[in-house]
Design brief:
Elements (H helix, E strand, L loop, with lengths): L1 H19 L4 E5 L17 E2 L17 E5 L6 E3 L1 H6 L32 E7 L3 E9 L8 E7 L18 H7 L19 E7 L6 E9 L2 E9 L12 E8 L5 H21 L1
Length: 276
Amino acid sequence: MLFKKIVIASAISATLASSVAEAHVSYHLSDTGLDEHWRNNETFQGSWTGGSPIDKGYVVGLPITWLANIHGNDTNYEVSAADAITEGAAEGYELSSIYNNWRKSDSFQGGGNWGHTLDFGLIDMDVAGDLTIEIKADGNLSDFTPGFTVWQGWGNGGGDKHSAWNFISDFSELASNDPTFDFFGEASQSLYVTGISKLGEASTTVSGGTATLTLSNLASGKYFLFIGGNGTNFGDETNQTYMANISVSSVPVPAAVWLMGSAMLGLAGIRRKAKT
């Protein structure tokens, strides 16, 4: 009976926790009041609507635009300009990427795509579960074609958006053929950030479309997003605004656990009968 009560209490607590969880997304307000795509270390300037990632240990030089603090399971956390304005950002605030330069297939500069065109977001998960990230065009006027990459960790150093975020598969071959070839540093260090590891990516080729990725059974912890345009018009700066929906689904308790609980209850009943 005690085990059954514990299981029921845990289920009720989890349900209540997920139902009362509130979205908590903090947005970076630049010290210049402008969206500076080209400047490193911007995170350390200006203010935040709801707390800076620096206070939570972020030390990398890449300029972060938003931080999503995931407090509970099965709750949607919307990251958008509208939400930012609600939280205190000025009218006209945008989440955006320029130049359609997320594309991995682009041969520009030998196959690596420039980080200065990307937008960067952080996720801090207090809960474990299946993380789902949806990036899409924001509003009817946006023709943003999204692509994004998810990394584990926030990094422990480095960070230079004036380099390539991804690397060509034949990097070593190029280097061996030309000893003077210098391709943006180590291939294992995207944008020179140390201490992160790639988990996955998603993209669409539909203008104004949606890119969605679900990563299963993630532990609570810190995750990094690189967001960019995956369109075909390289150099196009117009209407590249986006929004995101982020949620963590609780992982169902395996049937074996419930069977084990039933077995334990049965054994407990047998023992009580034996004593009587």
